[in-house]
Amino acid sequence: MVASTAPAHAAPVDVQILGTNDFHGRLLANGAEAGAAQFAGAVAQLRAENPNTLFAAGGDLIGASTFESFIQKDKPTLDALNAAGLDVSAAGNHEFDAGYRDLVDRVMAPYDAASNELGGAEWQYLAANVRRKSDGAYALPDVAASPGDSDGGTWMTSVGDVQVGFVGTVTEELSSLVSPAGISEVEVSGIVEETNAAADALTAAGADLVVMLVHEGATSTNIAAVTDDSAFGRIVAGVDQEVDAIISGHTHLAYDHVVDGRPVVSAGQYGTNLNKLVFSVDPVTGAVALKEHAIVAANSVQVTAPSAVETKAQVQALVKDATDKAEVLGARELGQLAGPLRRAQLASGSENRGGESTLGNLVAEVQRWATSSPESGGAQIGFMNPGGLRADMLGNNADGYPAVLTYKQAAGVQPFANNLVNMRMTGAQVKAVLEQQWQRDAAGNVPSRPFLRLGTSSGFRFTYDPARVEGDRITGMWLNGTAIAPATTYSVTANAFLAAGGDNFRAFGAATNKRDTGKIDLQAMVDYMAAKSPVAADPTQHAVGVSFPANAPAGYFPADKVRFNLSSLAFSAPGDVRDDTVRVLADGALLGEFPVDNTVGSSISDEYGTAQVAVDVPASWSNGKHVLEVVGNRTGTTVQVPVTAARPIAEIQGTGSSSPVSGQTVTTRGVVTARYETGGYNGFVIQTPGATPGAASHGLFVYGGSGAAGAARAGLVEIGDYVRVTGRVSEFSSLTQITPATSGDIQQIDGDVALTPAAVPFPTDNPGRERLEHMLLQPTGPFTVSDNYNLNRFGEMVLAAGAAPLRQPTDVARPGSSEAVDVAAQNAARRVVLDDGSTSDYVNHEAAQDVALPYLTDTPTLRVGDPVSFADPVILSYGFNEWRFQPQTQVTGGDGDSPATFGPSSRTAAPRAVGGDVQVASFNVLNYFPTTGDQLEGCDYYEDRDGDPVSISGGCDARGAAEREDFERQQAKIVRAINALDAEVVSLEEIENSAQFLRDRDRALADLVGALNADLGAQVWAYVKSPTLTPTVQREDFIRTGFIYKPAAVKAQGESVIYDGPEFDRARDPLAQVFKPVGGTAADKFLLVVNHFKSKGSPPKSPDPDADYGQGGFNALRVTQAQALVKFADELSVSSEVEKVYLDGDFNSYTFEDPMKVLYDAGYASLGEAYGASPTYVFGGMVGSLDHALANPAALASTTGADVWNINSVESVAHEYSRHNYNVTQFYAETPYRSSDHDPLVFGVDVR
């Protein structure tokens, strides 16, 4: 290339570049395709209008051509484009179809009648990214007939005073698109790098305008496709600004974009359009400005200029000559047909593009076969669009068959010369393609041909149900007898038209790894005939319609009748083989034979050839998937019809702790015994009618799914319905359940079926309960409420089978003893939860807070120890690690639809009389804190259903009420309880240590006494003041112990004494006081020590001695505290000269645990044990006493009785101040009931 210099006076030149691509030898006009003559005339007309014109191309001008061109190795196309004045083109992959040597030695070589009669392109082909392996030079030669200068990668020419340079490149995927052997002499490099280097060379050589020709293109017409991270997008972004325009091809799309001031264009395909670019180029300054860019339809150009008219006529003559020669060449014999291969027909004889045809299936198989080699993609499945078949394939059949098939006849069947595209598609994507046989255009409208049946290759089969909803009609797909998996990827081949989404098969757009195989459909047929002649029609149907009745069960029991209709059993063209009957087999055994109606109708569909099937389910079928095989008697058409056999509930449940078929999809049936449409369970329970308890349960939970959809499925049934259910079996929280995939998997069975609940004692072990899981039971024998704590939150309570609540084992016997072990075993055998038929969290779920709590009313209320009677049956269920009685529907609002009744209530207005002259009580007052959260910084709160704080959850040092109004509610209940105790001395635990808040240490005591006296309307109560010597605030806890008393009855003698030992660091120190009855003598005095030992919660882990070894956490510390207490009490007894010593309070130890044994061994006796007092606490569904009163021998002799007033532990927490306004039902009242979580203990002392 030699640089030239423009004259100084040269004016700007309007340089016109006309672009084309992917012409593919389209010589004849076909709709929007202009044909070679009009196309050449349009170029000549535009050149006549602007002589400063260059005509360039983006490659694939030849190859994959129509019959008239490819039968002569595209010589007619070369001549037509020569006449059109093509100047330069990038090489496309199809230019290499016959190999590199064919391109340079024939196509680009000069025409010679003797040595190169089929070559002679007079334009310059460019491939800057294709180099010879031998020397690294550009692989393509300079075409002598071309007017410019070329080195095989670039080409430059003059337009007036303007130097225009071109650089051309081919797709980097060339090696995968053509035969590797054909391009073994060359290697392909990167487009961007080679283009930029070539553009620099062109600029250095004086080019004023640089144009890139690239055989690579955008994947859509949207501008985003030229700027994204795709292969083409990276080319556009990577090419230097020295390149003024990019003319592309390969993807057959027409677009006209400007990106960062540079046109990026493509004309589409087949001579339909021209890209028109006009640049104003100043040859002096080198300035380049884009003046015009457009896509010009070739048919829209009026050919009027004399030179253009002459060109058009010249090309018309060329095309006629090519057509005449093709006629002769078309007589070539390709092979023989064993019989006719026809398109589908209607009754009138006209074409039915909605019908399956032997021809469509053959062409699909030919295309698969042609691309089945690894280098062509290893195709497994081929598809053919019916509109691509323009004639039947009959051959020269005047003398019958076998008949010769000629080249022209084959070309008449497939006249479009489509190249074959191989791609990767998942099974789901293949299904989506088949669903689009039921047609909709891009706008969603049903087109004039509402159904198009695709031809499919050998080995591919599918079934469909035309009655199903759009998008869900394909019911099964198989490849060589194996079911197509949705996630598995398959190699698929279709012609370029179909692969691009033609005929509204847009689902092909989701395919990946699309590539042009370098093969064309007609040549594939030519090759197939040569290899397979004589070719016969495959008589088997590849697609068959299978429709079950709308009320067909999802699963069948033995002897049930399976009914379904078959369609698409018959080809519809004359000469096609058709079945008279179909046989239905199961596991090789004949179940029946049914006639086929082969009447062909007049509607465009594929439903001709029908049969109605009705067979009995074999008795040998077990649950699960089975296959009925349908076989045509003449064609051998074989259809697999999956049928699900059902399984009785007992087989699903099995005899073990989990289902033997967990993870499988099964069908079963049963009577609906419970329905939970509301409350969160979202399901219902079914039970086999007539079945009695046996080795396996006959009940099963049907889970509808989460959310509103699941609740809706539960609402599809009513209690008493007889239903058939299909779903997946699973274990949820150790409970066997079945989950239907759709509402259609729940089907009503006609008929009334009665079911009687099983009246059985509550089983004492898990195997016995498993055998009744989800069965309808009528509980027999007595039951007792053992815990109601979760009633307030989850609407559930613990019951104990029998007449008494469950007992803490260590409240009955020594830890680890056989007696304690027996109690634990009895607890496990007797424990069951009565649930409310819901998973509602009435505390934390906003919607549930507005639903009235189940089972609970204010008066009478439900208390631990209340007897329970079942008027209605329940479902035995399991969840959250508990066996449960579930009502048949959700229970809300007190008694409501409760299956049980409770009571009579055991509430009393006062404790039982304990005798004596002085009554002493101990009472844990549940974090009685006058210092409320709103007085401190950083407090976190428990909130009521309106979001108002009620009590403190953490974040600060106070532990009680959130605000004054909350404290007043708490105080009112405590006051009612203490005044109703009618005791003269009350030991208090868990009251505020006001010193921690920089106030008088006794402020909380004073506050309580003030409230007590106000309630009585007199100064009845006083508190024992703290002694002069108190522990440091840093060593004490935020709660403490204390005494209040009635001065009219007793006097506090001397100062109180606080034990200040290390055993109680940051804990609640024992507090001692000597009391003397008014009017009594020194002998009447008694020493009272109130205690609050370390709690059992949040223990360290083993081997720490305070880990939980069966008596709760910190048992070792409590033992130490008990030992310190004994010593403290002994010393005070001596120093105060008081013989009678009482120890009371919250010891956080059950009656027979180690800390209590320390006290017993020291000579103290439990007054609760001595007088048969009730337990003071409920935890974990078991009752037991953490609160105790103990007496030494002298004190015991003066004791007259003891009682626990069960006003707190047995009451629902819903009555507590801290649950005020938690539920739409208001349970709070100013009563003693649930004033704390511990019950007060009272004992009598006879001092006279």
Topology:
Blueprint: E1 13-20, H1 35-49, E2 53-57, H2 67-70, H3 75-84, E3 88-90, H4 100-107, E4 124-126, E5 130-132, E6 149-150, E7 154-159, E8 162-170, H5 174-177, E9 186-188, H6 191-204, E10 209-215, H7 231-238, E11 245-248, E12 254-259, E13 262-267, E14 273-281, E15 288-297, H8 306-329, E16 333-337, H9 358-370, E17 381-384, E18 403-406, H10 407-413, E19 419-426, H11 427-435, E20 455-456, E21 460-464, E22 474-479, E23 482-483, E24 489-495, H12 496-499, E25 512-520, H13 521-532, E26 543-547, E27 561-567, E28 581-586, E29 589-595, E30 611-616, E31 624-632, E32 638-645, H14 649-653, E33 665-676, E34 683-687, E35 699-703, H15 707-714, E36 722-732, E37 735-739, E38 746-748, H16 766-770, E39 776-777, E40 783-787, H17 791-794, E41 797-801, E42 806-807, H18 818-830, E43 831-834, H19 846-849, E44 867-870, E45 874-879, E46 882-886, E47 900-902, E48 918-928, E49 940-943, E50 949-954, H20 964-981, E51 985-992, H21 1003-1016, E52 1022-1023, E53 1039-1045, E54 1050-1058, E55 1068-1077, E56 1086-1092, H22 1115-1135, E57 1140-1146, H23 1154-1161, ...
Helix pairs in contact: 1-3, 1-8, 3-8, 9-13, 20-21, 22-23
